[in-house]
Amino acid sequence: MPITIMGDREFENVPSIKSKALRINLNENIYGTFAEIGAGQETVRNFFRAGGASGTIAKAMSAYDKDFSDAIYGVEDDKRYVTEARLKKMLSHEIGLIEERITRDKHPNKLFFSFANTVATIDFAKQYKGHGWVGVRYQVEPDEDYNEISLHLRFHENDARLQQNTLGILGVNLIYGAYYKYDNPKKLLRYLYDHIDKDQIEIDTINFSGPRFAQVDNRLMSLQLVKNGMTDAVMFAPDGNNVLPAKILYKKNILALRGSFRPVTNVNMDMYKRSLELFLKEKKVSEENTEVIFEITLSNLRAEGEIDERDFMDRAELLCSLGQTVMISNFQEYYRVVEYFSRYSKERMGLAMGVNNLVDIFDEKYYRHLSGGILEAFGKLFFKDLRVYLYPFMDPETGELITSDNLKVHPRMKELFKFFKYNGKVVDIENYNPEVLNIFSREVLQKISDGQQGWEEMLPERTAAMIKKQNLFGYKEKVEEKTS
How many CB atoms lie within 10 A of CB 215? Predict the structure, then answer.
């Protein structure tokens, strides 16, 4: 087999797409259907071409006509076709037909599966790259309940035929991984990109379910998407589950707060409440159309060069428990966050941050990789009439209150800062709670790890209770030491 160089699989023998499809076809027990809508029958084509498909493929179909598709799968409430709900209906319907038409008495060892996708490829004007939902529902043992892997993808190629071909390769990788790599979901995830460059396609949501994935945390799998460079950001709804970014952000007013949130403190929540009050007073901003995002950058999740997944889980859970939507990104610079949001919405946006964060924005060293330097970054950051809501900082040594009026930026940046400040791009949060300004998350962490008293009052009540109940941030170890 050829040696393929692909990220984590560098210098490793990667099976060809044909050999993957052939291995599936030659397994006498794997048997199922393909239902592909919107980009040709590109996945099943690979199985037909590999040979030996007659014992694997029960049916291959593509219900392109909307009326015909509705007659098979039903009408969606939102009248859309490229949705997760549509994918689920396709998988359920096709598995139901297999169970109905193929008796277990005659085929006791068959491992049934249904592969489906519903996709919109690039439009004729090449303005919209396209996206889609892909999934497989399948058995590993004939008497076992079904497992399911579903994912959402975004195309980055500029030709419909190239997108179709990439989709077909991804489909084969998914089915192959489902049957032969299900015992290691992290590897299964990486292998989805076998023979696919990450510039071709982006996977921004993935979910595993069923008996073989009972111990899989889909939020951690989403973290792998960002960690492996498969997407720039993933999101979690207040219920703690994965959510498609487009579903949350589409045509919304967006207010974002970046932080480590380790843990989320009363300062963070005061910044959130006060910035939201100001944001909702802006023109063309309404409460019902506003989404607040708590963002954690990947760089803040690293410990000794590696992502501490347990730490990530704790922070995400604490924020979600407070009813917040969480985004994990690989964006270091703020302008990249705004660019990402602009994919989904052209409405007004805001960023809430502390003084130190704003000073960093005006540091030229973060923009040396841009040909236009800091001016290019600021053009991308503020071109959408974005507002920065600045939360004050109380110097713990001098007691001085730092706001936009007296913060210090590099001398070369003073005039640039004045330009944005006096043009209303930087808005001071004045109605803050002075009693929380002396709270710093690093000190809270130290108190928790040292077994000190009083840290509970620095956090939202629910957060403090969860830290104690779940023994987060070293709480359990210190309690045991004190009682031993």
Answer: 7
> Which pLDDT score, from 0 to 100, does residue 481 have?
47
- Cβ contacts of residue 423 below 8 Å, gap of 6+? none
Helix (H) or strand (E) holding 120: strand 111-120
Q: How many CB atoms lie within 10 A of CB 199?
A: 8
Rounded to whole angstroms, how far apart are CA atoms 357 and 427? 14
According to the model, what pLDDT value does residue 482 have?
A: 47
- Residue 203 sits at the vertex; the CA angle it makes with 125 and 384, to the nearest 5 degrees, is 55
Q: Domains in the chain, please, with CATH?
A: 3-216 (3.90.950.20), 246-436 (3.40.50.620), 441-483 (no CATH)
Q: Which residue bears the tokens 């949350």?
A: 248
**DSSP string for 223-275:** HHHHHTTS-SEEEE-TTSSEE-HHHHHTT-EEEEEE---TT--HHHHHHHHHH
Q: Helix, strand, or coil here: 147? A: strand
Rounded distance between C-alpha atoms, residue 433 and residue 370, angstroms: 38
Strand-pairing partners, residue 236, are 242, 326
When pLDDT is averaged across residues 268-278 and rounded to a whole number, the result is 97
Could you tell me if 115 and 33 are in contact, meaning their C-beta atoms sit under 8 angstroms apart?
yes
Q: What's the pTM value of the predicted model, to 2 decimals?
A: 0.88
CB-CB neighbours of 76 under 10 Å? 14
CA 296 – CA 258 distance, rounded (Å): 6
Check: CB of residue 58 under 8 Å from CB of residue 98: yes
Q: What are phi and psi of 169, to 5 degrees?
A: -65, -45
Helix axes of 160-180 and 17-26: crossing angle, nearest 10 degrees? 50
